[in-house]
Specification:
24% strand; disordered N terminus; 6 helices; alpha/beta
Amino acid sequence: MTMATDIERYSSEQLELARKLGTSTLFEASGLTTCATDIAIRPVWAGASVAGPAYPLECSPGDNLAIHIALEKAPRGSILVVSTGGYVAGYWGEVLTVAAETAGVVGLVIDGGVRDIAAMTARRFPVFTRGIAMRGTIKAHAPSVGKPISFTGTPVASGDLVVADDDGVMVIPAAHVAMTLLNGEARANKEAVMMEALKQGKSTLELMGLTSWRQD
């Protein structure tokens, strides 16, 4: 058995900042157009949010063997990013959720489907998926585990930063993370000043320099 090790690519402070800033702010701050995944990938339960290093893998349609292998290989602290080619079946459920928690995997992003929704909601395990399906899967093939993939058109490599919340899922290339967090924090501070000005009676037209659009 290959033992997973703790991942130290990002500090706990960076991960908490990414989760706090959220996907919408970070997307605007990143300057990247390819970091947002398909808008159809949604959280299983409202309020779910997570940030962590990606561990990518591919599953054959209706086959989740690659996920079982990934749970032995993924470093602790990872988020599994699973491409199924959009095939929706119950690739993941309560058993794999418990296995993931034990292995130190902190979340799942999958373009296929999951099941046992009540259990995942009760355990507050962050899962972002294309759909829900009661139909299970076989375990026969593992096309790719831990290697770079395209996830709904977004490139994902091991160690890229995944941030997911109610607004969606994004994958920030590792080389862009530090600058994106810095720009995101600046953007959040600017918006906080704007919010205070709005409370004082300023308009969005004034604050955004759009007064030329005012009607007489």
